[in-house]
Amino acid sequence: MAFTYFFFALASWFVLRPIRDAVAASSGATQLSWLFVGTLTLTLVANPLLSALVVRFPPRKFIPYAYHSIVVSLLLFYVLLRTVGASEGSVADIWIGRGFFIWLSVFVLFVTSLFWCFMADVFRSEQAKRLFGFIGVGGTLGSVAGSALTAFLAPRIGAVNLLLVSCALLEVAVLVVSRFPSVAGAVVPVAEPASGDLRTDSDPGLPSPDTQTVGGSVWSGFTRTISSPYLAGVAVFLVLFTIGSTFVYFQQSAIVGEAYADRTSRTEVLAQIELAVQVLTVLAQIFLTGRMIRWFGLVSALAFLPVLSMIGFGALAAAPTFAAVAVFVVLRRAGNFAFTNPAMEVLFTVVSRDDKYKAKAFIETFVYRVGDQIGAWAFAALTAVGLGLTAIAWIPVPMSAVWMAIAVWLSRRHAVLANEKSPATAA
Q: What is the pTM of this model?
């Protein structure tokens, strides 16, 4: 069921991702940096709204509520693009496209973050190491399906009509959430009996954790992130990842914008890149992810992307061409989906339930976008002072070395926390 849920959630997003990237490709570095400002602002507004749902409703209810809200917003954009912004290149079309870019950038974070919050809640650390790679295959296949649908349908029905396809896929994901089986054996943070043993949902009369409200404060996601060294380390790790990703994204947008002239051709080639990413990812997830973590430890998956980024940015500095950026994007995004993302989700299996739904969501949405914004401003500033793509590509290389050091520390800290939790899990 988790596999199926992730399939439809990511298929919904990847139908729309090439449309968002086509908007970015038609924007300059300065305009794109302001789009990132708008994304950060909207994420800041949306985060406490999501936390309010988490406090009041169990996951089986607040996840569908959040997804239904996204579907309504997509339908609104569909109407606007079909009416007010029907003329491509008009002032209305440009501004609606920018608003669409901002909303989609927020949309993807909340869709995927809610999924992994749910997974971290229902699977223990050792289960996650074994199963998250396989569950991730569901998302990867959904990404392949979404990218393939866009590449096939965009020249036939137009980019705007793909919004309806995305809405239908997301509603199927809602249906899966509502029918998700009850969880057995997960530890629920309830009061300890006199014996000191933790009660679990397998105890008589204790409900499944995914049917219980999380409760607590709306703002605890922020306070816990800045007060916990472990959560703060995860946040810094993610910021360094997003800064590097933003540099790659801006370079991709600049190169694609020069190589392809209209929205449909940009959408088509970007969809082809995404298709290559997802095909490579699914092969890695099936044959490598679980084995890599079991054989070489969590550190191997967390450090994979920093090492690849040091090599990739150096190569891009040597040859800032479409072929070079396409290969780097494919390898980096596939490495993220296959190794880094499942490893990061394992990191959250050893924290409290409140942290899984609030601190995790705060880190994966607002903190993620802070990293985006830092990267966007930095790239725009470097461009403004006259640096070209070659010079800019060298800057993330030492940053990736720091990123790798944090990956090593997090993997060691996770092992300590997992060992501390293991007696309670056995009980």
A: 0.72
